[in-house]
Design goal:
Layout: E1 19-21, E2 25-27, H1 32-40, E3 46-47, H2 62-78, E4 85-95, E5 98-100, H3 106-116, E6 120-131, E7 136-148, H4 153-160, E8 182-186, H5 189-193, H6 197-206, E9 210-212
Parallel strand pairs: 2-3, 2-4
Antiparallel strand pairs: 1-9, 4-5, 4-6, 6-7, 7-8
C-alpha cells in the first residue's frame, strides 16, 4: 500500500498554487473539466472513475437524482480506498422539471439546444465527499439558473458540429464555444462547468483535507 505524502507549501513546484493537499484525495470522475478545475486550484489527487448505471428512476426528482448518482459513485470508488477521501459529482440540466442529460447523438443535441434557446433552465450538480475509514459521507446539491439567448436551429447545428455537445448535460459547455449561447447566469459559474468550487473548497478546507498555502515568496531583485 502506497503512503500519501502531503504537499510542501514551499516547494518550487507550488509557485502560484492556492491550496496544498494534506490528506489523500481521489476524484471519482473521468471528466477533464473537473480534473482541470481542481488542478488549477493546486490540488493533488488521484483519478478513479466510477462506472455505474446512471439512468434516473421513474419519477425521481432531478435534485435527488444527481445526489444519488454522486453518492453511488463515491461509495463505489471508496470500496478500493479505505482511508482516502473520495470526491464525486454528477451534473444535469433541468428544463420545466425535466432533466436533460448528455445527448445520445448530434440530432438529440440539436433538439435539446433548440428547446433551451431563449429560455431559462437550471444546472444542478450533486456532489459527495466520502471516506470509508472515517464513516463520513457528505452529500449536497448546488443549483445555477442559466438563461440562453434566442437562436435558431441553424446556429444549434453549427454549434453541435464543433463537437462540444455530446459529452455534456444539456448539450452545451459554458466554458467553451457554448458560452456564446448564454445570455445570463444567476449563481455559481463553476457549477455549470461541473463542480461548485466555492462549496467544495470550503468543505475540503473545513475538514483539513486541503489548506490554504502560506505566503513564503522571496522578494524580487531588480537589476
Amino acid at each position: 500500500m502506497s503512503s500519501f505524502i502531503p504537499d510542501q507549501p514551499d516547494d518550487n513546484e507550488a509557485a502560484g498554487e492556492m491550496f496544498a493537499t494534506v490528506k489523500p484525495l481521489v476524484l471519482a470522475s473521468a471528466s477533464p473539466r473537473r480534473k482541470r478545475m481542481l488542478t488549477e486550484l493546486g490540488l493533488h489527487f488521484r483519478i478513479c472513475p466510477a462506472s455505474l448505471d446512471e439512468r434516473p428512476k421513474e419519477g425521481e426528482d432531478p435534485g435527488d437524482y444527481v445526489c444519488r448518482i454522486a453518492e453511488e459513485k463515491a461509495r463505489m470508488v471508496g470500496v478500493n480506498f479505505a482511508s482516502e477521501w473520495i470526491l464525486a459529482a454528477d451534473t444535469t440540466v433541468v428544463l420545466d422539471s425535466e432533466a436533460l442529460g448528455k445527448p445520445r447523438d448530434s440530432e438529440e443535441a440539436v433538439t435539446m439546444l433548440c428547446r433551451l434557446a431563449g429560455r431559462e433552465h437550471f444546472v444542478l450538480t450533486g456532489f459527495t465527499l466520502y471516506c470509508r475509514r472515517e464513516s463520513f459521507c457528505h452529500v449536497d446539491c448546488v443549483a445555477t439558473r442559466v438563461r440562453f439567448a434566442p437562436f435558431g436551429r441553424q446556429l444549434a447545428r453549427a454549434y453541435v458540429r464543433t463537437g462540444e455537445s455530446l459529452d455534456k448535460a444539456g448539450g452545451y459547455g459554458i466554458q467553451g464555444k457554448g458560452g456564446m449561447l448564454v445570455a445570463a447566469i444567476d449563481g455559481s459559474y463553476s457549477n455549470v462547468v461541473g463542480l461548485p468550487l466555492a462549496e467544495i473548497s470550503d468543505l475540503l478546507t473545513e475538514l483539513g483535507i486541503i489548506e490554504i498555502r502560506s505566503s513564503r515568496c522571496k522578494p524580487a531583485h531588480n537589476g
